């Protein structure tokens, strides 16, 4: 804050601007690069976590939007309650409740997409040097959201031998997990590990974040129980008041452009997050909240899900087949049961995927290097490949280009 | 952060949750109270800054929304660029540019309402203990937005005799002003003071925030030049790169439910704010951005403005007439030339408007006490009365109830 940068302010006026906050010097603009990659002609973007636009139910949403604004003009065009439209909070409470997990409106906060839930959580739980126990590797958007709060990360490799959730959670402000088809690895956290994390949260008191944007995108097998449900089993008699903070979003099941997400948690946590939301954007647009509510009520989510699942399953299979043909000499990977990504780890521990990226861009393909999923930026041996945005032929061509980039990198290293 | 609160987590499980961030203990939920006041039957809400719902062009917006989603499904339903829809950024650049103030898309960030601009500004400029020179009294939403960043405030009473902008701005990360019909006082900052603030910003290098939600709500007289325009006069040859950070919103000229605002500033500041926005909500909904763009392009703002101005002018006059009839024994005020509020200062310096509030609520009326516009909470001699939400008869009745509350308070003090 005492550093300044010099800008020329006009003839004869040299102004010394106050410095930007220090976290800006520790960040990267990779998400903006991913979003902008769509604008580069001919580039195959396998980096971001973008859905297939052809799955968006545009005609239905257009009509839902028109009716929502005509029928509820004061609700949707005015300021709404900070916590969200009461009807949407009720609908979400009902959707995620079970006999063992009683939920009311007081357990629900509506957010501007899943990302805002992460931002608000950082605001209410992290002060400079505060400790986060984060599932490693870690969703880069979560790292982005918390960087301005100056946290310290303790990496949790949940499926590593000897991983002890109680040790991991002790002293942390919260633990962060993506149990379903984790971003970036595509892995599921198994039932035993979920139960152990919940038990550790109950024992240590640490908040346990269950970030679940991908739960609905399961292509094979049965879903595993949510941690918030496992946490609730001990207390079926009153609205959930335990340590799990569950987060979800419309982005993967309807469309990201709605920017509607939700947090389901103890009423005291919802209150704190609402205080933070009041100072962040006052409230989320009533227009998009009402569209989400009416789309859910009309069964739109269930109606489009088979098409989404079928589309993404075929794309995942095409990507993995092309990887077997072209990338098996360099990388290992697992075929994910759901989600949007394949995580490929190089055989050669000295392969630096940060160095691969410019060659990939030059060859006309973009993937996400593993360094961006590590708060310390040290993990450089893997790449995250998205399979939801592009059709099978484009994915195959993208993998071919990636193989070209790998050969170029290898030639340079010799 | 080392404090804990004890919650009972289930039979036999006493969990010690990590403490919430310390700023939560220093805040108030007055904005939520204002927004919720709409739900209390019979209460006349003159506290918040809410527009008159009957001014919302609901039918037009409903049709604009339908067409926007049908015509641009991929744009509005997908993730968009962090900085905003390029066409909306261009339209805003064009709207605020002048021959002396050249603006391009690089000068513009689209935000989730005006509030998000304040939140992002705090993220990029404030670290613990950072100094803000804030026009005093200060918009409570700005105090809310910056509280999680731990700032220190230097109060600027801009029209006080001897006010020296250079002294005020020196050492501050930024200066915060609402030059048009300031929230809460309704005052305009005069031309001479605007020029002096701009000169001081150029001389000290300090960023100068010109928050302008109310500029379009002027009921009498001619508008004064924007500070960003005054700042630009020295440098007509390239996109604006000076210290003024201008902020605006659709909330007062179309409808707050769109949650669309904007920041116009030097490209380097826009870049920094975009990095903060990436980690806050990724991007603003394309649906609401496109509605704002199409509404502006269709001339909707200009078409509804005469009705808005006429409605609010009559409401302001009704409020001030009722105040003259019922409140002149207690308060002084100026009739504001624009905006949404009358600021009434008690004759008696010992009148505590925090103590008035519960009596007002009991009498069936809600106003904003001055303490919430002071970072230190010490200013307790005034009230802010909104005149835009209620019709003239309701305003008159609200003032009568306020007089009743004052008499009750007075009787108790004796």
Report what the structure shows.
2 copies of one chain form a homodimer. Chain A is α/β, with parallel strands linked by helices and 414 residues long. Helix content of chain A is 41%, strand content 16%. In chain A, the strands form 4 sheets. The first copy, chain A, has a 7-stranded mixed beta sheet, sandwiched between helices. In chain A, strands 11-12-15-14 form a 4-stranded antiparallel beta sheet, covered by helices on one side. In chain A, a hairpin with a 7-residue loop joins β11 (331-333) and β12 (341-346). The radius of gyration of chain A is 22 Å and the shape is globular. Mean pLDDT of chain A is 93; it is low at 1-14. At the A-B interface, β1, β2, α1, α2 and α3 of A face β1, β2, α1, α2 and α3 of B.
């Amino acid at each position: 804050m005492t550093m300044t940068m010099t800008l020329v302010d006009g003839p004869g006026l040299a102004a010394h601007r106050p410095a930007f906050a220090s976290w800006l010097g520790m960040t990267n603009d990779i998400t903006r690069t991913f979003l902008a990659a769509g604008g580069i002609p001919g580039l195959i973007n396998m980096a971001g976590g973008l859905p297939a636009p052809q799955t968006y139910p545009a005609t239905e949403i257009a009509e839902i939007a028109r009716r929502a604004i005509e029928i509820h003009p004061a609700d949707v065009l005015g300021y709404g309650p900070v916590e969200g439209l009461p009807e949407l909070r009720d609908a979400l409470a009902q959707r995620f409740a079970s006999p063992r997990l009683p939920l009311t409106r007081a357990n629900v906060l509506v957010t501007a997409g899943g990302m805002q839930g992460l931002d608000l959580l950082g605001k209410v739980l992290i002060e400079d040097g505060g400790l986060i126990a984060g599932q490693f590797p870690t969703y880069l958007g979560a790292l982005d959201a918390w960087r301005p709060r100056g946290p310290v990360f303790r990496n949790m490799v949940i499926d590593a031998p000897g991983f002890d959730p109680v040790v991991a959670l002790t002293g942390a402000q919260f633990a962060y997990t993506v149990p379903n088809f984790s971003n970036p690895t595509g892995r599921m956290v198994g039932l035993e590990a979920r139960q152990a994390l919940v038990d550790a949260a109950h024992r240590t008191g640490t908040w346990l974040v269950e970030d679940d944007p991908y739960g609905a995108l399961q292509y094979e097998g049965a879903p595993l129980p949510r941690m918030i449900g496992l946490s609730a089993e001990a207390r079926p008699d009153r609205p959930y008041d335990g340590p799990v903070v569950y987060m979800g979003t419309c982005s993967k099941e309807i469309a990201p452009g709605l920017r509607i997400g939700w947090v389901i948690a103890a009423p005291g946590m919802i209150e704190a997050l609402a205080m933070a939301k009041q100072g962040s954007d006052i409230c989320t647009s009533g227009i998009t909240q009402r569209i989400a509510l009416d789309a859910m009520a009309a069964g739109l989510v269930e109606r489009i899900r088979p098409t989404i699942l079928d589309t993404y399953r075929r794309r995942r299979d095409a990507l993995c087949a092309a990887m077997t043909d072209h990338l098996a000499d360099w990388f290992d990977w697992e075929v994910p049961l759901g989600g949007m990504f394949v995580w490929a780890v190089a055989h050669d521990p000295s392969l630096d995927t940060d160095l691969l990226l410019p060659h990939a861009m030059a060859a006309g393909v973009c993937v996400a290097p593993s360094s961006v999923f590590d708060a310390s930026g040290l993990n450089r041996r893997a790449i995250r490949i998205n399979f939801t945005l592009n059709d099978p032929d484009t994915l195959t061509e993208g993998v071919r280009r990636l193989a070209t980039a790998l050969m170029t990198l290898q030639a340079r290293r010799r």
